[in-house]
Each structure stands twice: as structure tokens, then as C-alpha cells.
Amino acid sequence: MTRIAGLAGNRGRNLLNVADRRPGGADLAVVLSYDPEAPILEAAAERGIPTEVVPLEDGIDRREHERSVNEALAAYEFDLICLDGYMRILSDTFLETQPTTLNVHPSLLPAFPGDDAWGDALEADVSVTGCTVHVVTDATDEDGEVIEAEIDAGPIVTQEPVAIYEGDDEETLKDRVLHEGEFRAYPRAVKWFAEGAVDVDLEADEVSVETDVLSAPDAEGLPTRRLASSDRVDTLRYGENPHQDAAVYADYTCGEASVVHADQLNEGAKSLSYNNYNDADGALNLIKEFEEPAAAVIKHTNPAGCATAESLSEAYGKALSTDPMSAFGGIVALNRECDADTAEQVIDSFKEVVVAPGYTEDALEVLCEKENLRVLDVGELGDRTDRFTEKPLVGGRLVQERDLQSIAVEDLEVVTEREPTEDELESMVFAWQTLKHVKSNGILLAQGTETVGVGMGQVSRVDAVRLAAMKADEHAEGKTAEGAVMASDAFFPFPDGIEEAAEAGIEAVVQPGGSVNDDDVIAAADEHGMAMAFTGQRSFRHD
Questions:
Q1: How far is CA 184 from CA 17, 161, 177, in A?
Q2: How far is CA 137 from CA 19, 151, 202, 207, 358, in A?
Q3: Burial 372-383 (b: 16+ CB within 10 A, else e)
Q4: 180-189, 283-292, 396-405, 469-478: which range is least confident on average?
Q5: Sign of torsion, CA 154 156 157 163?
Q6: Residue 104 near residue 131 (C-beta atoms within 8 A)
Q7: Where are the alpha helices (DSSP H) in 347-410?
Q8: How far apart (Å, rounded) are the C-alpha atoms in residues 522 and 440?
């Protein structure tokens, strides 16, 4: 376990942050200050951290004071020293006696060294500053006099950028550098030292960090640190609910069709809401799955219906008929230029947004008749280029590879006595590609290349089967669960889901497989004359 000696001159908020977070399991062994009134002494004592005071006596020699500091620290065991607002230039008397000493400076060194980094950054009118954690090196001459050019000149361990905004003053910038920069960078550096990942070569003036690499050892493209910048496009009326403030930000490095970058063609219509953006993004991602003309209707980020067909208008009609009641107030996404026939169907019932890679003049004229139907042109769909998706958490975020899995008929492993028909195999592939966009636990029923029922977001897979069958039999127009293909986003842990499907008249199943009870599930399918195929991969979607 790494033990730290912390030296502070005032509040020591970085040291307290390290003490509270214990990065890499590191603990503070002692906190020392030259000011007996420094607030950090009381805060450290409240945390059970021993404290020491070595006051600055008038006229005391620098090296003599440092020898006193060394004596005060001699009673403690520690592996690393962290400075925090310790406004003393340290000489070799201290640095050559003690282990590696770190400091955090409130700028991106070598820019703006010295005491007023925040003011210097503002005066220079830069748009980005930040902080630097560096190894402290001797900045004095043989007589103990300070060499200005050597201050804050030690090798850099890590840095963190922080934006400067119009209207910032020294206090606002100082606060943001602390909370957005130093509170990230200092614990990171301590963690690296605690993990033994840092090599300090003072002769070469270099620091290397073994774990600070572009890719994680077992996940290419997932770096140790993520630095992301985005620009606010607009503030929104509110977030998911009226009591929540919200804004939309743009990533200008995105290379694929996006609702954030889409043009809203009907001037005068109200702007998109938080929920509109979220649902429209989900709808657009769904129809990107298909090469054939495809249409989807999304409600609360779940497909109310999806279909492919020979024409866009036919695909939209089939998608809508899956659940026209739930489609009310939904989002429509199309993967072809919207024509007038499709537009006429879209406006036949209330929709919030329609998203497409272009519109004919006739279609646009039809759609703009609806006062508050937002019409988004995302341009050419092109390839899907964004590799990762992320989900913010309180205190962090999850990052994962985007689910771009795709299956073909030849990828399916038939495990039942009855072989699926060619039509059923086609439906299995369509259902699987659509199911990826249904919240788990998810069940999707399809006939041909159109949905007939969707059971989404259930805590029980059996309930998801029941919901999908009920939707097909009670809410779909001209459709039924009878004879449908059922897709499940994860394996069936027990035969009960198959029993429920058989009761609904489902004749074929596609699922990942991999349950310890696969044999029982297959036997249940065989008993009911159902065909079943495994994909070998699941498609959970939890957000």
C-alpha cells in the first residue's frame, strides 16, 4: 500500500480529495504545514490523519527550514510526497532526502508557470488552460537562491485541460481548474504511483507511465484516459421532464448521419425536445441496419414497429400497422428519400418527428402541412463510423463498443428436429437485426420482414413473450402471433418461454442459446413442432 506525506499551506483540497478517494489504495500517512492556522490541519485530524507543523521563522534559511521539515517527517513511513498549495520552493536539502515529490500546477505547463497561472491565462486570452501534475525538482542554486526559470520545470506526469469561457474571471476559472482539472489529474497520478506504473528518470527529465497507453490490454481503442470535447448546439426547453434543464451538444468529429447535425426543414415548427432527440437517434440507428427500403416508428426509444419492403411507402405501412395506437406521438425514421406517398401516410396520424436522408419537393410540401411535425434531413446515411457508445453514470461513465453485430442465414445454427423454412430464416435475420434496438428483456415477433408484436423492457422473459403476443393479437392491424417467428435477445433459461410462445401460435424461434437448460428448451420446441436456431451471441440493450 502506498503511503503519502502531504505538504500544504492552506486548505489542501487536493490532498483531502486524495485522502477521501484513496486512488490505487493510497493513504495519507501525515499532513504537514508551515502555517499552524492552515484549515487542512483540522480537516486532516477529523479524518484521523496525523499532522505536523513546522512554522516559518523570521529570517530562517531555506535549507535550515527544510532540515526541520525532514526531521518532522522522520517519524512517519511514506513512499510519495504530494504538495498542495505548499508555497515554498524546495531545494536539494529536501528533495534528495525524500522520495519522489509531486506538485499540481494550475496551468498546462510550460504555459503560465508562476503564482498567478489563472490570471496569466485570462490575460493571454486563451480558450483552454488546465492543470499539470509534475515531479518537483530543485529550482535553487548553490546558495539556496531561487532560479526563476527552474520553477515548475520538473518532468510532467499528467495534465488535464479545462475550458475558459467568455465572462470568466480569476475566481471562476480557479474554481473550475480545481474541480474539473486538479481533482481528476492528481488522483490519477497518485493511482499510477500506487500501482507501480511510473518510472521517473530525472537525469533524462522524463516520466513514463506503463498503463497510460492508447488501448487497454484486452480492448483495443479503449485508452487509459478519455479526453472528450463537445460544443453546445442549443439549450432545450427542458429535459426528460419539465423540471429538468437540458442542452444538446455536438461532436463535430462524427462522420455518420446524426440527428444532432440534421437540418430541420420546416421553419417555424418548434425545436426538438430532449426526448425527441433521444427517440430520433434511436429510430435513425434502427433503420441504418437495413439495405432494403426500411421504415421504423419509435416510441420512448423502443420500436413500435419496423419493416422492410420493395418500396418505402409499403415499408412504412407495415411498420405502422404493428402498433398504430402506440405509434401516436412517435418518431418516424426512413432509410430512403421520403416520397409523397410515404409522407401522406406519415401525416395521417400525429407524429412528433420524421427523420430521413432527404425529401422530394412533393413530400416536403405534404409534411410541412403539419404545423409541429419536425422534419429532419440527416443527409446521406453512409457508413456507421462511430465505434463506441457511452452512458454517463453518477461519478463516471460507461464506454463500450457499439453493437454492430449482424447475422446472415448461414450464421444460424439450427438445433431442432424441424428445419426452418426459407421464409422463417429470412424472418429470423430481420427480427434479430431489429431486436438489437429493443430494450431488454426483449422479445420480437416477425412475419416476413415486418414486426407483428414487440415485448420490451420486461424483468421476466416469459412476460416479454406474453406482451409481444398480446401486442400482435390485440394491437396490430391485420397481423397475429399465429405462425410468427419469435426472436429473443438472450437465451431462454427455462422452457416456459417456449411453452408460452407455442400457446400463442409461434412456429419458429431465434435466440442466442448458451443456457445450461438448452436441452430442455430445445426439447420443448421439438414437442411443439417448432423450429429453433441459435445465433451464438446475445443482444442486450439496457439503456
A1: 10, 10, 10
A2: 24, 8, 8, 13, 61
A3: ebbbbbbeebee
A4: 396-405
A5: positive
A6: yes
A7: 361-367
A8: 22
Of 42, 50, 55, which is closest to residue 88 (Cα–Cα)? Answer: 55
C-alpha–C-alpha distance, residues 52 and 69, integer Å: 9
Pairing of strands 413-414, 531-534: antiparallel
Q: Is 105 a catalytic residue?
A: yes
**366 vs 142, more confident:** 366
How far, in Å, are 78, 375, 412 from residue 371 at the CA level?
Answer: 69, 11, 47
- Per-residue model confidence as pLDDT tens digits over 313-323: 999 999 999 99
Q: Using alpha carbons only, what angle is made at residue 132 by residues 129 and 134, rounded to the nearest 5 degrees?
A: 160
Name the nearest CA neighbour of 65 among 86, 84, 24, 93. Answer: 93
289: closest CA among 174, 110, 151, 432? 432
Backbone angle region of 483, left / alpha / beta, with phi > 0 → left and psi within -120 to 50 → alpha: left
Q: Which of 105, 134, 437, 475 is catalytic?
A: 105
Number of H helices, E strands in the chain: 15, 25
- 486-529 per-position pLDDT tens digit: 999 999 999 999 999 999 999 999 999 999 999 999 999 999 99
Q: In the 3-class helix/strand/coil scheme, how is 89-101 assigned residue by residue?
A: CCCHHHHCCCCCE
- Residue 119 to residue 238: CA distance in whole angstroms: 35
Q: Which of 135, 450, 126 is nearest to 318 (CA)?
A: 450
